[in-house]
What does this fold into?
Amino acid sequence: MKKENEVTQSISGYSDIAAKIYLVNSRLANIATILNDRRDFNNSVGKIISSSDSSVSVQAYTTNSRDIITVTVSSTSLLELSDYVNKLVELTSSSNIKSVKMQSLSIDDGGYTMVLVIGLT
Amino acid sequence: MKVNLNSEVSKDQLTGLYYEYKEFLIPSVALIFSVLVLLFFLIPGFLSLSEKKTAADTENQKLNQLKEAMAIVQNSDSNKVTSDLNLATSVLPQDKDFQGILETITAVSRDTGTEITNYSFQEGNSQSVGPLSNFPSLTFSITLNSTPQQLMGFIDGLYKKAPLSEVVTATGTDKTAILTVSFYYKPFDPVGPNDKVVVQKMTPEQEKALSTISGWNLSEASPADFEVSSESAETGSPF
It folds into this structure.
């Protein structure tokens, strides 16, 4: 106890920097929590969008929850749309894309439009 | 010798008893004394040994903690600690930082070539469950003229600026987008005069967080904002 008091006495001279160290650590712990848990858009929506090229364009997208993205893509070529879907399926092993489901496929004068529901982990 | 316990004991009888059993007297007294010592001193003492050891271990632990704190404090560069505190507090402010948020949105929009056509905000956390539900936030709804690719750049830019943000929803077409973004803040935990807080080495997670936010190359808040007053140093003593 005597030793404890001696050390406490000697540290009290550094109370300003000690308080700052405590605050920095506490702040960084909170920052780490947010960085780890916030939604990683680049690894999900970003990859879905960047998988499209000039032949396939993203017409619309909606993501209201952490685990589902709905994307509407269009192309003049059905083969290009198929390639796009394949690229997304390949991403299931390297990104947080869990599933790719085709909700609808329509055709009009401008080409083909496909709505995909993409599940995320 | 038979003794009638119901009759009055005479002095002679007692003397007789004394002489008959006198060789047992001293051992009996010694035995009774030993039993009493055992009952009232040795057993309680033995039982309290483990408690005393636990108390001693706790005190030793405290002493080691203090010594470690002392070493950390003595080896710390005051300017670096102040700079880290300013950076960390600009990334996760203590309070709603409207100015910082608007400056960030404007800067990111400029950098990514997107045009903000509308925005609104509301208070309250958009997360009702999970670790982030403990963090208060300001939620902005931002409408942009942007392609999906530009939008990704916009989100990436937001994620590398202060204050910390999270895109909660995104809806858009090939030309426009609407984002819901939470900007987090967190008041410092109040520390009372009797609260003991411990100065410890940064954990690997904390070091990683510091390294990440340092890589964003943010301009720091004024060091004067976070001077620790003598009063707060007393009331919220880290020891």
